[in-house]
Design goal:
There is one protein chain. By secondary structure, the protein is α/β, with parallel strands linked by helices. It has 4 domains: about 170 residues, 3-Layer(aba) Sandwich (Rossmann fold), CATH 3.40.50; about 160 residues, P-loop containing nucleotide triphosphate hydrolases (Rossmann fold, 3-Layer(aba) Sandwich); about 55 residues, no CATH class; about 70 residues, Alpha-Beta Plaits (2-Layer Sandwich). Strands 3-4-2-5-6-1-7 form a 7-stranded parallel sheet, sandwiched between helices. Strand 5, helix 4 and strand 6 form a beta-alpha-beta unit. Helix 10 runs antiparallel to helix 12. The radius of gyration is 25 Å and the shape is globular. About 45% of the residues are buried.
Length: about 500
């Protein structure tokens, strides 16, 4: 990974095929702690904490406790307030030279900080949902700047924001040579519409014939996964005659099904649509066009009745790494467990789910790369089939395993369009009269929304602005003053900077 002070690191799978490449992630942490400094490792979830701590303990480092001490402090909400505070003090005083934890660990004070390492910085778990809504990556970057600490942002696929740091020249890029990448990764094949058309009617099944053959072949050699991007049973229905989306007869909300044999139910108002009919062609038969993990798992049990089906999701329970040794694992993104030695094969269905908005292809591809990294190498027969019409850049990145090219290309596109993260997103919420007052707020004698470096983005019930970085702080200060004035009179108002931003592509 080199000696760069700020590095965006594109990881490749190791031989263990674990949820994160532990040897590569922990090596700089151990190096930093061996000297006179302290190291912080920020990970997205309990699974990553458990994997990192287990490897550190295997290397002879003990998890810190008040009774016996130790070298590794752990900051995690599941440990309870007392344990968290004790570990916080251990990191603060330097009693434990390594601190491992989730999002709050970005704020952990340590003496002589030598390294802040963050794994999978694009994970949504790093967004703090409470005001002032800090993102752990932003906190880590500020600390690297102000404390002179080395920063590593690692992951199977870099986030768009991390790529932007490289494009700004603030961070360097760390990537393995192509020979090492080809040696480590599985073969990835993307089944787009034309490919599925060639297979005939069966190609448009949620599990096309090409993908099912990969599953059956893989089961002869080890466990296989099927990744489903949606929870629930069926999240969307369409008219079987004309293909138009089915909507509720009561409120025009989307229809879905809660389980096998259940009537179509509105996902907005909850009303059952027993007498549904298509307003366009008057057809009455519905087709299930967006199947959730429960539906897929049920169909797989019928397709492979002699094979064990393991389900891993937030609703059914998330399987631990190493818990599965055979059969098919059906999982949602983020709930896919690693298996010893890696999966023999994997299929990602509905991979184009959620696409169509600027920048979402990077977030989606990051999930698919994370799943594919758990599959054995191409040399060991590992194959991944991705089913969905992806953007050409995303498809090329997956098939050639070049996630950095995708992220940096998207970052350059956003820079050219004047979109975040190259401009700041400022969201102001309040009653209509207060929003109008905010629009007329003057900065340097010019109304806020008439400044050439400030653009308003259409939004219902809020004032959403894109502001150039040179003026963003002035805009925030002006709107913050309105929030204070409104709060003093009992009017509810909220200001958020750099929150989620999506526009239709």
């Amino acid at each position: 990974m080199g000696g760069d002070a700020r590095l965006v690191w594109e990881a490749i799978p190791d031989s263990d095929r674990s949820s994160l490449p532990l040897d590569a992630v922990l090596a700089p942490v151990l190096d930093a702690a061996e000297g006179d400094g302290s190291a912080i490792l920020i990970v997205p979830d309990a699974r990553a904490i458990a994997a990192a701590v287990a490897r550190l303990e295997k290397d002879g480092l003990a998890r810190w406790t008040t009774r016996s001490g130790g070298e590794v402090a752990v900051i995690h909400t599941e440990d309870g307030p007392t344990a968290r505070y004790e570990n916080y003090l251990a990191g603060l005083t330097g009693s434990a030279r390594i601190v491992v934890g989730t999002r709050p660990t970005a704020f952990q004070p340590v003496p002589r900080p030598a390294l802040i390492s963050m794994w999978a910085d694009g994970n949504s778990a790093y967004h703090d949902p409470h005001a002032p809504y800090p993102h752990a990556r932003v906190v880590a970057a500020i600390r690297a700047e102000t404390e002179g600490t080395r920063l590593l942002l690692g992951g199977w696929a870099p986030s768009l924001e991390a790529a932007a740091l490289v494009e700004h020249g603030w961070a360097a890029w760390g990537v393995a040579d192509r020979a090492s990448v080809r040696e480590a990764v599985p073969a990835v094949d993307v089944l787009t519409g034309p490919r599925r058309e060639e297979e005939g009617p069966g190609g448009w099944h949620w599990m096309p014939g090409t993908a099912w053959r990969v599953v059956r072949d893989g089961l002869d050699r080890g466990p296989v996964f099927v990744l489903v991007p949606r929870a629930g049973y069926v999240t969307a229905l369409a008219c079987a005659r004309c293909g138009g989306w089915s909507v509720c007869l009561n409120c025009d909300g989307p229809l879905g099904r809660e389980g096998e044999g259940c009537p179509p139910t509105c996902r907005d108002c909850g009303k059952e649509n027993l007498d549904w009919h298509c307003p366009d062609c008057h057809g009455r038969r519905l087709a299930e066009v967006r199947q959730g993990i429960e539906k897929v798992a049920g169909e797989l049990k019928r397709m492979a009745p002699s094979t064990r089906i393991h389900v891993s999701s937030a609703d059914s329970g998330i399987l631990d790494d190493g818990e599965v040794a055979d059969g098919i694992v059906v999982a949602t993104p983020g709930a896919l467990p690693a298996v010893s030695g890696g999966y023999a094969a994997g299929v990602i269905v509905g991979a184009d789910s959620g696409l169509g908005r600027v920048g979402t292809e990077v977030d989606s591809a990051r999930l698919w790369f994370g799943a594919a990294a758990l599959v054995r190498s191409r040399k060991a027969g590992g194959r991944v089939i991705v089913v969905g019409d992806l953007e050409p850049a995303a498809r090329r990145a997956l098939e050639t395993w070049t996630p950095g090219d995708l992220a940096r290309g998207a970052a350059r596109e956003r820079a050219n369009l004047g979109l975040p993260p190259f401009r700041r997103v400022i969201q102001f919420e309040g009653p209509p009269s207060l929003l109008d007052e905010a629009r007329g707020k003057e900065i340097g004698g010019t109304p806020l929304i008439r400044r050439p470096d400030v653009d308003e983005v259409p939004s219902d019930g809020a004032l959403v602005l894109l502001a150039g970085r040179g003026v963003a702080q002035e805009v925030v200060v002006a709107l913050r003053g309105l929030v204070k004035e409104a709060s003093a009179t009992g009017v509810k108002a909220r200001l958020r900077v750099d929150g989620p931003f999506e526009i239709e592509g």
